[in-house]
Model the fold of this input.
Amino acid sequence: MTGRSPLPPPPPPAEIRTWPDRDALLRDRAVVLGELVRMFIGPGRLALLWTWAGVAALGWSLVGSAFLMFEDAYDSLGVVPGVICLAIGAAVMVPAAVLVAVGVSRDLRIHRLLVEWGGLDRDPEGDMALRRPRASLLWLLTSFALCATGLFACLAVPANARAGVETYGLVAWLMGLGFLAWLTGLTGLVKAFAHRRWVLRVLAGVEPDPLIRVGG
Done:
């Protein structure tokens, strides 16, 4: 979820602002907010989140394969392929998880900037393009589906596991994939609700419903 574009600076303090008039302030505000909204809720950000989650899932699949190899190993030589697979899986999964965490931290900074720049003034007509209802709905629906699928896997897999048929390694592997799906979906849901709350509180000046009070 990391991005290459540098973040814009926060707005200057009131005592050192140099905009000649309100129109100039609104123009700069619109440019900065447009870029920040794209960074926060753009479809490309959703694709990036899913990409890193997919890489993490690939790494966990390799780790799960190592668990299965350990269960099937009958001697020390049989453990060697599992150790190799475990090392490769960790090498794939850990960097992906770190990059997702870095991306979440970046999203928090972006949201703070959205609040600060949006709070400079209000421009109901000019802010219409910042609401991004379609992008927000895309985040909401896809993230909800992924979150529900992951939660179902985490609950259904151990509940339906049969002794002597499904091994502990297989159950752990499937539950791990479900947890990754749930965590990715939850991240997307939080961002969708945070954007909606920002639109209502900062752009529209309306206190949102308690059900969507997510975010900073």
Notes: The chain is about 75% helix and 0% strand. The CA atoms of residues 140 and 172 lie 28 Å apart. Residues 14-212 form one domain. The radius of gyration is 22 Å.
